[in-house]
């Protein structure tokens, strides 16, 4: 495997992290600020610098490259596989009446199944229901195949996200990358570091990812009472106080970030499903807890690997970035300490992370986690 990485901050010259060289048919991952990815001149400059066919674009709430976290930048990682291969497919949620489950089913059917080893998803992040997308992708999934990925971001604006494959980035896109090859070793892990606090309550009315009532009270009103003065800063303020949700049929809770609010009916729109009768609790975190969560994710991802990873995709939540603020790179330091200083890392800060629970096979939508996909061949 050959990996070439470069960043461009403020439309300056490209800064390469490895020796610049021509690659053979690489997978090129382009992560960047949404406004930059909407600029055709920026896209043209990316295509000129990286004149390859398989370009995947995604907007972010912060770009990860090596040991650095960038804002308002473009980061590019080009990966040439020597013993393995990949296939990329795409679909747009707007063509499916915003039904993420239907899109997921169709998108998975497009992917060749022979020798399929792993799936990585890069999804629109502002209105796609990540839980429904996973249901669609897994509806006919072969038992040995696992799914990881992330929901695109838009800093802390929550206005819109964009993504694409080959085309210029646009709203509504969901990109699915299939990895193939007997020699591929892909491990993954997802861990948070957030701590539940306050009373445990019950979801009494919800529909999909829309939360209407908790303990028979309007959900948004109850949540605002907890936030106090910070309620005026919603939905951004919710990134500091996500919800810990435990559905009736699950032992493991999932963390849910609030993507938007509806003052008219006192409801909250979450990044994934929050089923009726689920237990729900507020959460909070410290910088040290979040950094330790990244460390635990790296340790689990490295556990039982036969080979050292040659490349790592890191998807972390925008809420973690806001809490850590100027110390945000500490969670990358923890990851690098475990996986090795010289292993290339790329990724972004997201509106949701996709991965199985550690030790599980079924994918889940997470919020407020560090999710790692470690790849070697």
TrEMBL record:
**One Pfam family name from the record?**
FIST
Report the residue ranges that make up the FIST C-domain domain in this protein.
Answer: 219-357
Give all residue intervals belonging to the FIST domain.
25-218
Return the SMART domains for the record.
Answer: FIST, FIST_C
State the name under which the record lists this protein: FIST C-terminal domain-containing protein
* Organism annotation: Flavobacterium turcicum
Q: Domain of life, per the record?
A: Bacteria
């Amino acid at each position: 495997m050959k990996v070439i990485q470069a960043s461009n901050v403020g439309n300056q010259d490209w800064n390469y992290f490895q020796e610049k060289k021509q690659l053979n048919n690489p997978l090129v991952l382009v992560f960047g600020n949404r406004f930059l990815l909407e600029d055709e001149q920026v896209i043209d400059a990316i295509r000129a610098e990286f004149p390859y066919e398989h370009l995947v674009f995604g907007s972010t709430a912060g770009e990860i490259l090596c040991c650095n976290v960038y804002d308002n930048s473009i980061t590019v990682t080009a990966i040439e596989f020597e013993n393995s291969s990949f296939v990329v497919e795409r679909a747009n949620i707007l063509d499916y009446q915003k039904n993420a489950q239907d899109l997921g089913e169709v998108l998975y059917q497009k992917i060749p199944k022979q020798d399929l080893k792993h799936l990585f998803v890069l999804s629109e992040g502002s209105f796609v229901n990540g839980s429904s997308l996973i249901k669609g992708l897994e509806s006919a999934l072969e038992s040995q195949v696992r799914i990881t990925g992330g929901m695109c971001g838009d800093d802390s604006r929550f206005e819109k996200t964009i993504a694409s494959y080959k085309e210029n980035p646009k709203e509504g896109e969901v990109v699915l990358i299939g990895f193939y090859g007997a020699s591929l070793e892909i491990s993954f892990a997802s861990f948070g570091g957030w701590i539940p606090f306050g009373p445990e309550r019950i979801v009494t009315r919800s529909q999909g990812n829309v939360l209407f009532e908790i303990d028979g009270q309007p959900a948004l009103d109850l949540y605002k009472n907890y936030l106090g003065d910070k309620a005026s800063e919603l939905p951004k303020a919710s990134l500091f106080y996500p919800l810990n949700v435990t559905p009736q049929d699950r032992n493991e809770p999932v963390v849910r970030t609030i993507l938007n609010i509806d003052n008219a009916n006192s409801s909250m729109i979450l990044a994934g499903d929050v089923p009726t009768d689920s237990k729900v609790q507020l959460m909070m975190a410290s910088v040290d807890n979040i950094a330790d969560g990244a460390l635990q994710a790296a340790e689990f991802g490295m556990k039982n690997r036969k080979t050292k990873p040659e490349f790592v995709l890191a998807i972390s939540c925008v809420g973690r970035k806001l809490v850590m603020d100027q110390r945000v790179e500490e969670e990358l330091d923890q990851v690098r300490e475990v996986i090795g200083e010289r292993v290339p890392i790329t990724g972004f800060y997201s509106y949701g992370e996709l991965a199985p629970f550690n030790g599980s096979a079924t994918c889940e939508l997470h919020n407020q986690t560090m999710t790692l996909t470690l790849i070697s061949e």
